[in-house]
Every structure is written in C-alpha cells, then in structure tokens.
Design brief:
Blueprint: H1 8-20, E1 24-29, H2 35-48, E2 54-59, H3 62-74, E3 79-80, E4 96-100, H4 101-106, H5 108-117, E5 120-124, H6 136-144, E6 149-154, E7 159-160, E8 170-173, E9 179-182, E10 185-187, H7 189-194, E11 201-207, E12 209-213, E13 219-223, H8 230-240, H9 247-264, E14 271-276, H10 279-293, E15 298-300, H11 307-316, E16 321-324, E17 337-343, H12 349-356, E18 369-374, H13 377-393, E19 421-425, E20 428-434, E21 437-439, H14 449-452, H15 463-489, H16 499-521, H17 525-536, H18 546-558
Parallel strand pairs: 1-6, 1-10, 2-4, 2-5, 3-4, 5-6, 11-18, 14-16, 14-17, 15-16, 17-18
Antiparallel strand pairs: 7-9, 8-9, 11-20, 12-13, 12-19, 20-21
Length: 559
Amino acid sequence: MPALPLRTWQRAALTAYHEADRSDFLVTATPGAGKTTFALAVAQTLLARRVIDRVVVVCPTDHLRTQWADAANRMGIELDPTLSNAVGPVRPGLRGYVTTYAQIASAPRRHRASISAKRSLVVLDEIHHAGDGLSWGDAVADACDPARRRLSLTGTPFRTRPDERIPFVRYDDDGSGGLTSSADFTYGYGHALADRVVRPVVFAAYSGVSRWRNSAGEVVAEALSEAATKKSEAAAWKTALSPTGRWVPHVIAAMDERLTHLRAHGMPDAAGLVLASDQDDARAYAQIVERVTGHKPALILSDDPTANKRIKEFTDSTDRIAVCVRMISEGVDVPRAACLAWLTSYRTPLFFAQAVGRVVRARGGHESATVFLPAVRPLLTLAAEMEAERNHVIPPPAPGNDLLDSLDLEVPDEVLGNAFEALESDAEFAHVLHGGRAVVADDHDDISADDADFLGLPGLLSPEQTASLLARRDRDIRRRAGAAVAAADDEPEPEELAGYQQVAALRRQLSAMVSAYALASGRPHGAIHAELRRRTGGPPTPMASVEQLQARIAAMQKL
C-alpha cells in the first residue's frame, strides 16, 4: 500500500494509538488538521499487521462518502462509497465500504452483519452525529459493537446530557451537570497554527441598527452590539439576517472587498463562503451576492440532488463565492476558501468550530482567513476563545484599553412569537477581536498601502491598525452595499412617497446618516439619536412623524 507522508501530529497520534492498543480511541483534531489521513494511516497499519481485514467508515453525509473513498483509494485501501442498505455483502476485492449515520440508523442489523463478517475497524467520523437522533446512538452501538477496533474522530470536544451519551466515547463531568467528551489524543487550533497546518484567522464583527415590530405591535430599534437583553439581541440578530435589510448586503460587500484584496496579493483563487440558516435565506442571499459583486455565486442546497457535484465544481473552480446552508460546515474540503460570512443564527461551539474550520486549512505561504460575523455576544464569545489560541501562537502587539465586557455563553433560544416582523437593518464595522476585547478603529493616517497588504496576518499590524484599515474600507463598502440595495428596490425619493412609505424611506435616510457620523466620530448610534431628539423634540425615531424625521435629517446635516 502506498504510504502518504504524515504531519508531525499525525505521527504522534499514530504512535499514541498503537501504544494504547485498545478497542476504542477518540481523536479530537481541529478542522483542517487532516483527520482523514490519520485515520487511514491507522487502517493501513492495522491491515498490514493483520489485526483487521475490513474497514468501515461512518460519516455524516453522502458527499463525505465519496471524499473518504477517494482518500482511501489514494492510500491503496479500496472502499465502496455507494453500498446501500438494500445491497447484499461487500463486493469481493474491496477492503470495506463507507456509509452514513442515517443509513446505520435505518438498518443497524444489516451493518452489524457486515462488521461481524470479518475483523473490522470502524471509523466513526464526527462521532457527535451519533447523537443527532433519539435512536441513532442505540443503532450505532448495536451495529458497531462487534468491531475489533473503533476509531472515533471529531473536530472539537462536544458536550452531551447524561441521558444522551454517545456510544464508544468516554466522558468527564463538565461541572454544570453535563458531560464533556474525553479524547485520547487532542490536536487543537493553537497547535495546528504553530505547525502551520492551519491559517491564522481574523474575526471582524459588524454591528448596526435593527428595527422590528414585536408581538405587541410596537416598533423597536436597537443596535446589535448594544442590545439590552438577550431577547432584544435575538430579535436584532434575526432582523439583521433578513434578506430585505441593508445589513446582509453590507457584510457581503465587505467580504467581497477582502476577496479582491487577497486575489491581488498572492491568493488568486481566494473564495468566500456565505453561511445561511435555511434554504430560503440561502436563495435570497445568492441574489444579493450577485447584485453586490456582479458575480453569480454557487448555490449549494442539501435538497438539491446535484449538491455534491456543485461542491466539487466550486472547489476546483475559481468562482468567488458559494452560498450554502449547514452541509458545508464540516468535512467539506475547499482549501481555497479564505473568507466566511456568518449569516446564520447557529451558535453552538461545535458548529462554530466546524464552520470556521472551512476557511483555515493551510496551503503554504502566508495565506490568512477572515470571518465576518454579527457583533452579538454568543458569537463573540466563541470567536474570543479561538482568537485566544491564535494569539498564544502569534502574539500581536501590546493591546490598548478598550475592554470587551465579560461574555455569557449560556444563551437560550428566544421565542419571538409569530407576530414578530423584521422591518429594516443597517450595518457598520464594529471592531476586531484581540485578547478578549473589542478593538475599535483609531486614527492611523501613517498606515501605508504596503502596510495594508498585511491585513489579516496577526502580529504584523497592531489590532488598532487592523481595525482602522477595516473601518476605512467600510466607508466605500457602505456605498457599494447601498447602491446594490437601491438597484434592487428601485426606491423613489422620500418626497415622492406618501404615508408609511415616506416614513420608512426617511428613517432609512436618517439611519444611514447616523451610521456614517458614528463611524467617523466614534460615538454610539444611540447617543447620536438621543442628541437629535433633544434638538428637534418629539418621540423616539421609530415613532417619529414625517416632519420630525425631516427635522432630524436637517439637524444631522449640521453636525
């Protein structure tokens, strides 16, 4: 069998595996580190030593079945990625097959028979998926119990409740009544970054004012980064992600600008991923991408029978952006993807690590990754944890004094009610993360064009310089995004409208003016709106009349 060269961590993990010499072994390795190659190296050695005769790989999706089979074939291990539950035994001449957790759950006895027929190694890829359904864990336990060896893989430690243990995994008490998986070998993002296996990542957070109508019929306006309660934060977040607002086009324009920069400075095939919550949003986001960038994106939806083909085509092409839902979050290998726009409400640690893992896979050189995300506490917490690992390896210059409030990871799902209605949103660059704090833009007129080329490589520019560069570019991005929205809406001037339409148009005009002034002055949106209200009188902006809004726009022009 041909042997592929192994990375340092893979050789160390292989040694640890053979020294342990037990039936079950769990490896936690950061997304992009090369878990597939490691697992197949284990299979190679066990086959060579005649410990096993068959290899069975269990993975989350059909796309990954082909990916695993192709990788195994390159190492001289021929696996069948097409074997269905309706087909009989594994074809002669093959070493085994690749299946999915869903297939095992629907026919555990069928797979138990195949695994029992020969001395088998079962590779459980992203083992946490064994807990995705109430019966999946039991099915996996039943089917894989006869295996001579079981090798479990995951991209990050995962938590479960005591009554939902995933089979073949050891657990430790997490101190809060839950259980955390206990790995036999761990290779985290910090280690992978030090070994140059993954890219450094910069997290750029975007705020902006969202306006929505609550279940009582009241119009509420709040900035993403200044939400007073978890419920209002959830509502502001949901409104920002609405395809009808201005937040999404702005962030897509920011990512597109970053891709242009990467392509002009050493990464000519740089690609971006737009992560949507559901298929309806994904389709709407794809239209926004085309309006903002002038390029039609790849649209990858799980219910599309050609989805696997589309992923492969995008991977091998030079297309700029792919819009996708959850299926792109783990296991999918697109090495040229270097930017991620987080346009989804998903917020679990596991999903965050897996999704960010799609853009950090290193290819050599000095490539970097950028993640554009809403400035909401659940995501900032997860980003700060990953950023801390990054800075442990690449310490950036000394920080300033703008501290980020302590973040709370426990954010329950909020029920906004069926009467919730997203009205409008705008976006503005808020900060970059550094050392667990939010670094806002500072005046750095001394930043040259050459300095700007280092944006995204932590340690070369100070966090203040990085924030300033992003804020400077944000002004141009705002104009691009606004032009795209205007082209889509073909919106008349406010004075040409009547009633509620005129009010909405004036609110958008005032919001854009306030956002631009806030960006230039560093003052919070709320403080500017409060000052305008003191100067002109009247109720808060969401309840203001046409005349009051016009007065505030006039006052804004004098600031």
